Automatic annotation (TrEMBL):
Keyword Nuclease: no
InterPro entries: EF-hand-dom_pair, EF_Hand_1_Ca_BS, EF_hand_dom
Protein name, per record: EF-hand domain-containing protein
Domain of life: Bacteria
SMART domains to which the protein is assigned, alphabetical: EFh
The organism of origin for this protein: Streptomyces achromogenes
All residue ranges annotated as the EF-hand domain in the record: 8-36, 48-83, 119-154
Keyword entries, A-Z: Metal-binding, Repeat
SUPFAM superfamilies in the cross-refs: EF-hand
Top-level taxonomy: Bacteria, Bacillati, Actinomycetota, Actinomycetes, Kitasatosporales
PROSITE patterns: EF_HAND_1, EF_HAND_2
Length: 173
């Protein structure tokens, strides 16, 4: 598999573009999504999401220096890491956005989630369209997580076409 999906995700997580994902950058995703959907920082779903993201960051930061380089990310990312720590963390972001707790996001909620998490809204809209294969205007939690897992681990997913696979500027294979 090409590193292009990994580059894209790494660049999204490295908010300041300095070549490393810091603890604060990574945990800020939870705060941005919570704010975007109107969840108070003290809400139990927000606390659960922060805990899940803490676990992911600890898992990714192989040398424990509080910064995850692309090489650390590349060595870490894969199906096992996804199932072990990403699935709970990404599922917790879905749960934050699923304010009525029905297990589904409509287009507006999905785009709010993905843009708050770091995607461009045009990419988020295209990803929604790609994942909404039955055209009912809803994405369920499992479809969302499977789409991301497949994009991260194999580069092939309905989201791959939506997000493209070109490396982000400034990141080399």
């Amino acid at each position: 598999m090409s590193d292009s999906p990994r580059h894209r995700i790494f660049a999204m997580l490295d908010v300041d573009g300095d070549g490393a994902i810091t603890h604060d950058e990574y945990l800020a995703r939870v705060d941005r999504v919570a704010a975007a959907v109107g969840r108070d920082a003290g809400h139990p779903v927000v606390a659960a999401s922060r805990a899940a993201h803490e676990a992911v960051f600890e898992d990714m930061d192989a040398n424990g220096d509080g910064r995850v380089t692309f090489e650390e990310y590349r060595s870490w990312v894969g199906r096992e890491a996804f199932e072990r720590s990403c699935r709970p963390a990404l599922g917790s972001l879905f749960d934050l956005a699923d304010t009525d707790a029905d297990g589904h996001l409509d287009r507006a909620a999905f785009i709010r989630l993905r843009t708050a998490a770091g995607n461009a809204d045009t990419d988020a809209g295209a990803a929604f369209d790609a994942l909404d294969t039955d055209h009912d205007g809803l994405i369920d939690r499992d479809t969302y997580l499977t789409g991301i897992r497949d994009f991260v681990t194999t580069g092939s997913s309905p989201m791959a076409a939506a997000y493209g696979t070109a490396p982000a500027p400034g990141i080399r294979s």
